[in-house]
Amino acid sequence: MRYFTAGESHGPRLTAIIEGVPAGLPLLDSDINIELKRRQGGYGRGGRMKIESDQVEITSGVRHGKTIGSPITLNVTNRDFKNWEQIMASHDVEDKVKSQRRLTKPRPGHADLVGGMKYDFEDLRNVLERSSARETTMRVAVGAVAKKLLHELGIEIANHVVKFGAFDLSSSLTEPLSVAKIQQTARQNDLSVVSTDKADEIRSYIDTIKKAGDTIGGVIEVRAEGLPAGLGSYVQYDRKLDAKIASSVVSINAFKGVEFGIGFEAGGLPGSQVMDEILWNEEFGYTRKTNHLGGFEGGMTNGEQIIVRGVMKPIPTLYKPLMSVDTESHKPYKASVERSDPTALPAAGVVMENVVATVLAQEICEKFSSDNFPELRKAVETYRTRIKEF
């Protein structure tokens, strides 16, 4: 199972093509639109989300509500394109049109300057349009298909924000946290937090940051349950599933780090306080006493809950911009300003959740026979029975 995305932020549409989804998987556009709507929500979101109301159009690979094994094509129309039709035209236009919304003052922390250097662009908008987080719309659309497959196999996944800038909420999570609990709490509020005790303080904090023309980052946690042990492999570095997940998470715009389980905290503890002791019982087979390693051992799932966190840097587009250099004159200027949000953490959590779901679905389709979904389901059930009896 693999996919590609295409499209520019202010172009006519965004597109994704997914190959390798098993035939016979129930799939409706509403399954995808639910996730797209989640991505557009959250406290701190700005003007672009008031313009767009993302709805997917499935143009291939699905017939009568089920996948048919051929590539699935997903399209999302950019409603804002009507305001950019000439600026973003694929055909040649007059020079005066080309000069409109031309970008020569790269934003620190963005792809603008380095992308322009790499591809030799005079107008850095060529970089901005593709490097924009608008592309994550299709990462979410693809993830929605993956989540449907996982759900049909009894695998559930959810995210919540554990840090908003200076507000660290992880200390309040003293009890084991199930995916169902996250869905019942974080999914029901505009901050995507499990505990709303500090919700008003966090919203005021975000408002203060916005008034200052600044932005904040934070930390998002994704948890998944129902995965059998043995997904991924130790035999080659590039087959380790936790490595694949880490790569996918840092590929999301503005994400700069990943950890599993207790993560970097493990570096300051003795091994006796980090390793998860192995238990066995007749009902579940092998389990772990704790889950400090976040559900992974040797690059493979161990049957415990997957716990992965990603750190998102503050959005680099600032309404009080930092200093930059004009690429035409080489003189110092304040960086260009595009639409921006003080934070996009709740939305980024939806992106991360769907990106992780995609990797998990890819791994399942790679390990098991997956030409058609009933065959895949049977293979997974047979495998679960076998490892339980090990």
Describe the structure.
With 390 residues, the chain is of the alpha+beta class. The protein has one domain (2-388): Chorismate synthase, AroC fold. 31% of the residues lie in helices and 20% in strands. It is built from eleven helices and 17 strands. The chain has helices at residues 29-39, 48-51, 95-98, 112-119, 125-131, 136-152, 179-185, 199-211, 241-250, 345-367, 373-388, and strands at residues 2-6, 13-19, 56-60, 62-63, 66-67, 72-77, 156-164, 167-168, 218-225, 255-260, 278-281, 285-288, 296-297, 300-301, 306-312, 323-325, 332-334. A five-stranded antiparallel beta sheet has the order 8-7-9-15-10. Strand 7 (156-164) and strand 8 form a beta hairpin. Helix 1 (29-39) crosses helix 6 (136-152), helix 4 packs across helix 5 and helix 6 (136-152) packs across helix 10 (345-367). The longest helix has 23 residues, at 345-367. The mean pLDDT is 95.
How would you summarize the topology of this molecule?
Layout: E1 2-6, E2 13-19, H1 29-39, H2 48-51, E3 56-60, E4 62-63, E5 66-67, E6 72-77, H3 95-98, H4 112-119, H5 125-131, H6 136-152, E7 156-164, E8 167-168, H7 179-185, H8 199-211, E9 218-225, H9 241-250, E10 255-260, E11 278-281, E12 285-288, E13 296-297, E14 300-301, E15 306-312, E16 323-325, E17 332-334, H10 345-367, H11 373-388
Antiparallel strand pairs: 1-2, 2-6, 3-6, 4-5, 7-8, 7-9, 9-15, 10-15, 11-12, 13-14, 16-17
Helix pairs in contact: 1-6, 4-5, 6-10, 9-10
